[in-house]
Amino acid sequence: MNIYDIIEKKKHGQELTKEEINYFVDGYTKGEIPDYQISALLMAICLKNLNLDETVNLANAMLNSGDLVDLSKIKGIKVDKHSTGGVGDTTSLVLGPLVASAGLVFAKMSGRGLGHTGGTLDKLESIPGMRIDLQMDEFINNSNKIGISIIGQTADITPADKKLYALRDSTATVDNISLIASSIMSKKLAVGADALVLDVKVGSGAFMKDVESATKLSEIMVSLGKKFNHKTKALITSMDEPLGFAVGNSLEVIEAINTLKGQGPQDLRQLCLALGSKLLLMSNFADNEDEAKEILETNIRNGKAFEKFKEFVKAQGGDISYIDDTSKFKLSKYKVEIVSKDEGYVKKIDALLIGEIARDLGAGRITKESKIDLGAGIILNKKIDDFVKKGELLATFYTDKEKDINLQVENIYKAYEIGEKNKETHKLIYKEID
Ligand code: URA
Ligand code: CA
């Protein structure tokens, strides 16, 4: 077997065998096959696609390229969640404590933000003292003791995906559904929770721009989960505007806390209840959707979900006085309020642009090495379908970058489209794939 023949075969649209897929993944991970050959192969895959068997074999090869996390020492039903990436997506910080308060175990490995999307680890680090680099023993102990732990993914998990993803990123070969599905699912399967819910985002701020391609991606990921014997469901949800009001690290932690107390934005709450219900149903903790939602809503009302968040923060070294009094979070130096120049309904908010503005205000990274300003970000005072008067507050941002303020105010105006009332009200959850 050799890599040249494998490239040639895919160039002609032929199916690759399991052995051929293992051969190139293994050879590339070990550095025995050079970037230029794998680049050519990735491009051939983008043009000719992989079928489901090939996608399963690719996920399997990547999954087995490094360490597997053994969750068997954790008692109870372990659940996991993945979002394909959005703007202001604070879901994990709410969903984790919420389902843990209902008795599930949320033992999760999360990522950092890159580009216009945020990451759970960065958000958690805005809580002073919070450690996200726990050793495996501590991760397991905390999961057993309080039902929730969130840590960073170690370098030894799916090294093949890390290398391939970096190469895809620089060769315009990211946006193939089989490559995305196998990349995401290899990481999820290496941890291997009992039940997994996927939040597949669609819209201006997401990878998938339409429901049709999001459906295809979801179907492949759900099939992959099932092939490897993990209960998996997907929700296709809107990223046509940022989720909630807050975009930025400290701001989103505050928003998560408010939501856990029942005082957060409606869309974030609705999404967390929907994802959480799926996890309860897959775990047989509820018989139907209504019952599942009721369990979760009760735990918001009676304070159990919020208490669980505090236990989680405390267990990972975070200062819980910030959780009790969110005014302690230090935001960036300049607070800028942007008022509407027009009167009307908010028709659209460009989620991608809002994500880029937040990044440039300091909340995100331009490169992997950039340092982020945890206190920077945006509050959307108005969201899609809201009515706004001339002179009324549209958005507020926080930054330390004084010289960029005028430019970013202009960008906020560009992100909002104000006019006639939309004919159809904005939809948050499009459909469910299982
Ligand atoms: N996220 C991933 O982890 N992999 C992809 O290929 C795309 C998004
Ligand atoms: Ca948010």
What coarse outline follows from CA principal-axis ratios?
A: globular
Number of helices: 17
Number of beta strands: 13
* Rg: 22 Å
Element pattern in H and E? HHHHEHEHHEHHEHEEHHHHHEEHEEEHEE
Strand order of the largest sheet: 3-2-1-4-5-13
For the termini, the CA-CA separation is 38 Å
The major beta sheet can be summarized as: 6 strands, mixed
Give the overall pLDDT as a whole number: 96
Structural class: alpha/beta
Q: Runs with pLDDT <50, length 5+? A: none
Bound ligands, named by name, code or SMILES: uracil, calcium ion
User: How much strand?
Assistant: 15-25%
Q: Helix share of residues? A: 40-55%
Oligomer description: single chain
Description:
α5 links the parallel β1 and β2 (about 105-110). The chain is built from 17 helices and 13 strands. It has about 425 residues and is an alpha/beta fold. Helices cover about 45% and strands about 15% of the residues. The mean pLDDT is about 95. The structure holds uracil and calcium ion. Uracil binds near residues 165, 174, 179, 180 and 183.
Put the structure in a nutshell.
With 434 residues, the chain is α/β, with parallel strands linked by helices.
Write the layout of secondary structure elements.
Elements: H1 3-11, H2 18-29, H3 35-48, H4 52-63, E1 78-83, H5 91-101, E2 105-110, H6 120-125, H7 136-146, E3 148-152, H8 159-170, H9 177-191, E4 195-202, H10 211-227, E5 231-238, E6 246-247, H11 249-260, H12 266-282, H13 289-301, H14 304-315, H15 321-324, E7 334-339, E8 344-349, H16 351-363, E9 377-380, E10 387-388, E11 393-399, H17 405-415, E12 416-419, E13 429-433
Parallel strand pairs: 1-2, 1-4, 2-3, 4-5
Antiparallel strand pairs: 5-13, 6-9, 7-11, 8-10, 8-12, 9-11
Helix pairs in contact: 1-3, 2-4, 2-8, 4-9, 5-11, 5-12, 5-14, 9-10, 12-13, 16-17
The structure holds uracil and calcium ion (CA).
